[in-house]
Amino acid sequence: MSVVLNVLLAVVAVYFGLRKLLALTHDAREPPMVETGIPFFTPIFGMVRWRNRYYNRLRDQHRIPIYTLRFPFQKIYVINSAPLINSVQRAYKTLTFQAVSDQFAKLICDTSSTATQLSRQELENWSQGGKDVAHSPSHVIFQGLKPGKGLDDIYKTMVEALGKSVDGLDIGEEGEGKRARLLEWVREGLTGAIGEGVYGEGNPYRSREMREALWKYEGGLGALSIGILPGLLAREAVQARKYASDIFEEYFSSGSCQGGGSMTKTRYTYYSEHGYPIRDIAKLELGNGIAIFSNTIPTTFWIIFHVFSSPELLSSLRSELESHATTSQDCDGSPIYTIDVENIKRSSPLLLSTFRETLRHHASGIGVRKVMAPHYLSSPSSSSSSSSSTSSTYLLQKDAIIIMPASVQHSDPKIWGPDESTFTPTRFIPKQFDPDTTKSNPISPATTSPTEFSPLATPVSALRAFGGGTTLCPGRHFATTAILSLVAMLILQYDIIPISGKWVEPSSEKAALTAAVRGPDEDIPVEVRRRQRMEGRWVWRVTGGKGEGLGIVEEDI
Ligand code: HEM
User: Fold this and answer.
1) Quick one: pLDDT at residue 170?
2) Is 15 left (phi over 0), alpha (psi -120 to 50) or beta?
3) What is the ipTM of this complex?
4) Residue 212 in this model has a pLDDT that exceeds 50
5) CA pseudo-torsion sign 379, 384, 387, 390
6) Are β-strands 74-79 and 66-71 bridged in parallel, bridged antiparallel, or unpaired?
7) Which residue of 190, 260, 339, 369 pairs with 95 in a disulfide if CB–CB is 3.0 to 4.6 A?
């Protein structure tokens, strides 16, 4: 009995000890603490239980603009308020993304101490640099992604490869459809085509083994990022990383990278000029595969799902896209339809709106920053439009982590209206857009009611699928071009029908917490049939965007 009593007393003592520790290590000027039931452990249980939905639950439960979660040895400030997010983005040198991404890169890429030292030095130089330094160090490395000739050249190769891969989706016997697994097909089609544009003739992802190594590596990122016994807890990923790094090392040391696209060449030049060993350049390139493919693939899967599961939307998109095709004749008299990808991106408001709505619906990036020095955070005085704005000022302690979950912003009825949980493909169509074209169009701007929420009236940071501020995803133009081109090709050339006879939206419960776009838990077996209408040869052109980017997020606009 006395043993039980002693154990109970010890538990009570530890509990009150931990509560005291919580109180002593929390300054009243910091954001309020929540989830303190079992000090330091309730947030862990919450994350395990609710996964990506945890932050939305806490927002609904507490209704406060910012709060503190206490983990063992780590404070996390979670921000719900859009104006406070704007303030975080403005203080980009004190509240830094690069410090977190460097640490993550080290864990997942297993770079050498030389590379770690070099990136630390670069971060220091950047944070102490004056006005003329880049807004984000990684934007220097990724200059090759800036809209312009280099990117257009990547698009040309990529779009040509996408066109071939979509033609290969063809029917088997006459009148029969070809069966495929949707996610698997998207993954294969995109990796192949993007790889051609990015890596050129020597594209390592032409090999099936290399593509499989990338997926095994991606599957182990969660375990690798914990950094404990990776050889044991992430064995498959570690082996795949070694295999793929060897191949990339050969790609760079043989000079094949000189035939690659602007992104590959500028990254290689940057790293080699800064003294990174070739082995590290190879490992970082494999890590770059995660940036390139991990979110692009699930986004493509979801937009295809939403488009093909809604006959009205599919029909409206077909009308919109067909209007961009010019018709000519092949030597045997059969029709050739030519479409410029620029028209798909710039003159297809319903497609672009469906794309944004897909991102709003499925993006789950958590927008991480590290507090480099104590900082007082308050809403910008101009931000009075949101009801979640606050005039309070919060102390953020050095070394704490800030999280700004996209899903919290993307599901806020104050921003998006009472239908925030419904997939509304027209949501992002500018209200002034050509109402005359909408008469024959069941899904169209004209069907929107005058009271509908206009996305242009929302705070700048409301659509956060690509992050925001100085670290806004530099790959957004690239990803948008790849996704919209592929989806337009499918819409115009194929019918996609689920084998089960009914489209059912798969859950995303198993998606990695690190994913910026949650993938589906299950694949969807489908039948792909060539459309009866507009049968003929399709030619996809890339004339280039005169160096202009596409207005994807509100910062671009
Ligand atoms: C649908 C596809 C994509 C989504 C949803 C996405 C999303 C994101 C998000 C949420 C961030 C974090 C930004 C922040 O916290 O402020 C980010 C950063 C980044 N993304 Fe993407 N991304 C996509 C595609 C790509 C592609 C195709 C590339 C490269 C070709 C790329 C390269 C990067 C890089 C380099 C960063 C780091 C930016 C920095 O350090 O300043 N992304 N992306």
Assistant:
1) 59
2) alpha
3) 0.98
4) yes
5) positive
6) antiparallel
7) 369
Supply the residue whose CA is at minimum distance from atom 42 of ligand 1: 475
DSSP string, 182-229: HHHHHHHHHHHHHHHHHHGGG-GGGSHHHHHHHHHHHHTHHHHHHTS-
User: What does pLDDT average to over the chain?
Assistant: 88
Closest CA to 50 of 35, 30, 64: 35
pLDDT digits (tens, 9 = 90+) for 498-509: 999 999 999 998
Residue spans in the chain of domains classed CATH 1.10.630.10: 295-367+414-557
- The H-or-E segment that residue 117 falls in is helix 113-128
- Ligand 1 site residues (CB inside 6 A) read 97, 101, 136, 138-139, 142, 145, 291-292, 295-296, 299, 363, 365, 367, 465-468, 471-475, 478-479, 516-517
Residues 244, 217 contacting (CB under 8 angstroms): yes
Q: What distance in Å separates the CA atoms of residue 21 and residue 17, rounded to the nearest whole number?
A: 6
Instruction: Examine the pLDDT at 386 and tell me if it is beyond 50.
Output: no
Q: What is residue 533's predicted lDDT score, i.e. its pLDDT?
A: 86
Q: How far apart are the first and last CA of the chain?
A: 71
Write the single-letter amino acid at 87: S
Nearest-5° Cα angle at 553, 162 to 287: 55
Tokens of 414: 């104050």
Residue among 473, 476, 487, 514 whose CB has most ligand 1 atoms within 8 A, to mutate: 473
Q: Which one has a higher pLDDT value, 297 or 1?
A: 297
Rounded to the nearest angstrom, the distance between the alpha carbon of 483 and the centre of ligand 1 is: 15
What are the CA-CA distances from residue 557 to residues 345, 453, 491, 554 (Å)? 14, 18, 27, 5
Q: Determine whether the annotation assigns residue 473 to a binding site.
A: yes
Q: Which fold is adopted by the domain 295-367+414-557? A: Cytochrome p450 (1.10.630)
Show the DSSP H helices in 274-337 as ranges: 278-293, 296-308, 311-322
The confidence band for 1, taking pLDDT boundaries of 50, 70 and 90, is low
**Mean pLDDT lowest among 236-250, 361-375, 525-539:** 525-539
Single-letter amino acid, residue 285: E
Instruction: Give distance in angstroms: CA of 28 to centre of ligand 1.
Output: 35
pTM score = 0.91
DSSP 33: B
